[in-house]
Structures are given as structure tokens and as C-alpha cells.
Amino acid sequence: MSLWNRPPVSPRPRPGAPGAAPAYIGGNTGGNNGLYAAVAPAKIGLSTPRPDDFDAFWQGNLAAQARVPINPVLTPVQTDVPGVELNMFTLDALGSKAHGYIARPAREGKFPALIQLQYAGVYALNAHGAAQRAAEGWLFFNVDSHDKLPSDPSGNIPQNYHAVGNTDREKSYFLNMYLRESRRWTTC
Description:
By secondary structure, the protein is an alpha+beta fold. Helix content is 20%, strand content 18%.
């Protein structure tokens, strides 16, 4: 039986009452499970103390990246969405490359911009979806978090990328990811 065609759930005891099961908090089921959360980002604390030299470390990496030419490359991508120009982009970053799709209406003018940053995981980006946004009148950027072509579902990304270098900030997989993200912001 799927999650979506279950029989109605009978009332359960309130959480913490005798016989009550733990409450279901949520999870990625691949569909809209109707669970939402509101947070106050400014009130989320650090999980570990911030290193005293963090600002110098990050500014040093940004300065090193600023010396790397961006070398933007646009590669046209065919789309079945009429009135749209769709391109794959590649930007050089410090130690890696930033990739994604950029789509725009195929007419002269200025357009409002929309940037879609991807969530954790390794997957191909939706080129058709990017083209659809452009057909709505947006200059649309869909950016991949990983150093891989946006059309590639897996790239050469380690399966356990989240653990690569997680005890050494110089070797952390996320260092290059964050630098790629910062490179994207400087080009928009």
C-alpha cells in the first residue's frame, strides 16, 4: 500500500501518553507529505565553536579564487519550449568548475532573474524546467552544487561526498562546493 492511498488513520493517544507511538516528524518521501516547518534562521546556533581564524581562512580562499579567471563558457542546449534560449554554463572556480543551466526569453529586453540553488544529493538538473521558467519571462539560473555537467545524473562525485575531508577544512569536499557557490554569486 502506498503512502498516498492508505485507509484513514484512527485517532491515536497524544504524544507522551501511555501506549503512544513516537510522533512522525517528516522525511523525504519524494512527494509532498504535507509537513512543513517554520524556523528562525537568526536563532539557529552553531553546532561547534567557530574557529578563531575562520574569517582569515575564508577570506584567503576567496582572495585566491578571485585570482582565477572565470572563463565563462555557454553551450547551447536544444529545448522544445518555444521562444527560449537555453544554455549550459561552466565557470572556473578555485580547484573546480561551477556548472548549470541559464535560460532566457529569446527576445531583447531586461528580465527579472530567478536563481535555483540545488539541495543535497547528486542528480541531473531539469533543463526543461529551466526553459519553462524562461518562457514565463524569467532570466533563470539553475545551478548544480557539484563539479559535474548539469545533464549528468551522477558525475564523478563520490557516493560519500559528505564525509570527504570532514575532519580537515583544507580537504573538505564542501570547501570547493562553497567556493563554487560564491563564484556563481559574483557572476550574477
